[in-house]
Amino acid sequence: MNARTATLLASLAFIAFLAFLTVSVAVKDGVTPLVVLSFGILAMFGIGVVGALTTPPEE
Predict the structure, then answer these.
(1) ∠ CA 38-31-41, rounded to 5°
(2) How far apart are CA 2 and CA 4, in angstroms?
(3) Which of 33, 36, 49, 59 gets the most CB atoms within 10 Å of its CB?
(4) What percent of the chain has pLDDT over 70?
(5) What is the DSSP letter of 58?
(6) What does the alpha-carbon distance between residue 6 and residue 25 come to, in Å, rounded to a whole number?
(7) Cα(6)–Cα(19) distance, rounded to whole angstroms?
(8) Please, what is the end-to-end C-alpha distance for the chain in angstroms?
(9) Residue in 3, 8, 6 with CA at minimum distance from that of residue 52
């Protein structure tokens, strides 16, 4: 595992942790506009990180 993959996996784990926190707030307080905004931002970050993980690095 190279440094690029380790960094991307760490950022994906951080995004998953933030998603867990967002879900816990949604369960506790209900779905609010800020929860929806948070899910949207996390989805954009997650799609970018997963895309970077599946694309091989340029040589």
Answers:
(1) 10
(2) 6
(3) 49
(4) 100
(5) P
(6) 29
(7) 20
(8) 16
(9) 8
